[in-house]
Amino acid sequence: MIPQETAKPEAAANAAAGDAALSAAPRRAQGLWEAVRKPLLAAGLTLAFGFLIVVLVSDQPLLAYEQLLLANFSTPAAIGSLLTRTSFLLMIALGIVFAFRAGVFNVGGEGQLYVGAVSAAAVGLALPDLPGVVLILLCLAAGVLAGAFLGWIPAELKVRFGVDEVVTTLMLNFIAMLLTSYLVAKPLRDPQAYGATSKMLPEQAALPGVPGLQGANIGLLIALVLVPLAWLVLFRTTWGADLRASGTNQRFAETVGVRAHREIVRAMLLSGGLAGLAGAVYVLGTGHRFEQNFSPEFGLIALTVALLARLHPVGVLLASLFYAVMLNGAAYMQIATDVPRSLVSLLTGLLVLFMTVEVRRRRRRGLSKEVSS
Fold first, then answer.
1. Residues 113, 295: Cα–Cα separation, whole Å
2. Which of 117, 116, 184 has its CA nearest to residue 150?
3. DSSP string, 162-181
4. What is the pLDDT of residue 236?
5. Can you tell me whether residue 283 is helix, strand or coil?
6. Which DSSP symbol is given to 285?
7. Is 195 left (phi over 0), alpha (psi -120 to 50) or beta?
8. Which residues contact 300 (CB under 8 A, 6 or more apart)?
9. What is the DSSP secondary-structure string of 340-351?
10. Angle between helices 260-282 and 132-161 (to 10 degrees)
C-alpha cells in the first residue's frame, strides 16, 4: 500500500499533467485560428476595396467579380487548373516558411523553381529509355537537388561570411534565369518548336493524373501531403524546435546548445528543394517540357503567400488557394468583361499593404507592452 504522504503528491502531479494535456488542445486550436483569422480578414478587405475599384472602371462589376471568384469552379477542367496552380504555390511557399522560421529571408524561390524545372527536363531527355516510375523519381530527385543546391549557396555565404541572404538569393534568381535561358536555347532546345522550349519529354515521364480532376496530376497530392508533414516537422519535432529557436533569437539559441548556423543551412536546403520540386512537377505534370517563361512569377507570389499565411503550413494552404483563384480568375474576368487582369496585381499589392499594417501594429503593441512593464 502506498503511504498517504506519498500518494498525495503523486496524485497532484498526475492531476496537473492531466490539466496540462487538456489545455494543450484548446491552445493548439487557438494558435491555428490566429494563423488563419488575420489573413482571412486581410483577404476580405482586399476583395472589398477591389470591388469598389471595379465599380469605378467597369459597367459590369458583378459579372467581373463573378468571373474572378467563381469561374474557377465552373467546369472540371477549370477546377483542375486551379488546384494545379495551387500546388505550385503551396510547395514553394512551404519551403519559404521553413527559411523564414530559421530567420532567413529567402527571395530566391523563382530561381530555385527554374533550376529544378530545367534539371528535371534534362534528366528526362538524357534517359529516355528508363521505365516510367524510375524516370519520374529520378527527374523529381534532380529537381529537388538542383533547387536545394541553389538554396545552399546563400546559406553558406550567410553563415560563413555574413553575406546578406536577400542580396544573394535575389542575384541568384537572375543567374538561374540566364542559365536556363542558355540551356533551352542551345543543348535542350527543340528546333521544331516556336520559342524557347526544350524537346518534349518521353511519354513515360508524365505524372499520373488524379481521377475526377481533369488536368490535375499527383503533384497536387504531393503538395497536400506536404502540409501536415511541414506542420509536424515544425511544431512536433526537435529539429523544428531548434529551427524556430534559431529564427527567433540566434544568440540565445546558440547559448542553450542549438547550432543556429547549421539550422540555417538545413532550412535553406529544404526551402530550395521544395521550390525545385515544384519546378520538376510542372515539367513532368503540366508542360511535359521546359519552357523559359512557364512561371508567372510563382516564386515571388509564393513569398507573399507565406507572409499572408503568417508562416503557418495550414495558413499557407488557404493562402495558396486564394492566390490561385485570383491568378486564374483574372484571365476569366478579362475575357468576359472590360476589366484588365492587371487588377489582380493591384489587389495583391493591397493585400500586402494590409498585412504590413497589421504586422507593424502588432510590433507597436508589443513595444508598448514592454515599455509599460
1. 9
2. 116
3. ---HHHHHHHHHHHHHHHHH
4. 94
5. helix
6. I
7. left
8. 107, 109, 110
9. -TTHHHHHHHHH
10. 150
Which DSSP string do the residues of 107-146 spell out, in sequence order? --HHHHHHHHHHHHHHHHHH-TTS-HHHHHHHHHHHHHHH
pLDDT of 220: 96
Dihedral sign from CA coordinates of 91, 353, 36, 28 = positive
Structure confidence at residue 279 (pLDDT): 98
Cell of 107: 527571395
**318 - beta bridge partners?**
none
Query: How far apart, in Å, are the Cα atoms of 282 and each of 32, 113, 208, 296?
Result: 30, 9, 13, 13
Distance between CA atoms of residues 186 and 30, nearest Å: 54
Tell me which residue of 133, 106, 138 sits closest to 119, measured CA to CA.
138
Instruction: Quote the cell numbers at residue 294.
Output: 512557364
Q: Per-block average pLDDT, block size 10, for the chain (373 residues)?
A: 48 47 55 66 84 88 91 92 96 97 94 98 97 97 98 96 95 96 93 90 96 91 97 94 86 77 94 98 96 92 89 92 91 88 81 67 52 46
- Cβ atoms of 325 and 307 closer than 8 Å: no
Per this entry, what is the length of the chain?
373
Asked if 122 and 279 touch (Cβ cutoff 8 Å), the reply is no
Reading phi first (left if > 0) and then psi (alpha if -120 to 50, else beta), residue 339 is in beta
Long-range CB pairs of 319-324, under 8 A, 24+ apart, other chains included:
319/39, 319/93, 320/86, 320/89, 320/90, 320/93, 321/82, 321/86, 322/43, 323/89, 323/348, 324/72, 324/82, 324/83, 324/85, 324/86, 324/89
User: CB under 8 Å to 338, separation ≥6 — which residues?
Assistant: 57, 58, 59, 60
* pLDDT at residue 291, rounded to an integer: 95
At residue 368's C-alpha, the angle toward residues 362 and 372, to 5°, is 150
Return d(Cα 268, Cα 264) in angstroms, integer.
6
pLDDT score recorded for residue 212 = 84
Q: Beta-carbon neighbour count of residue 78 at 10 Å?
A: 18
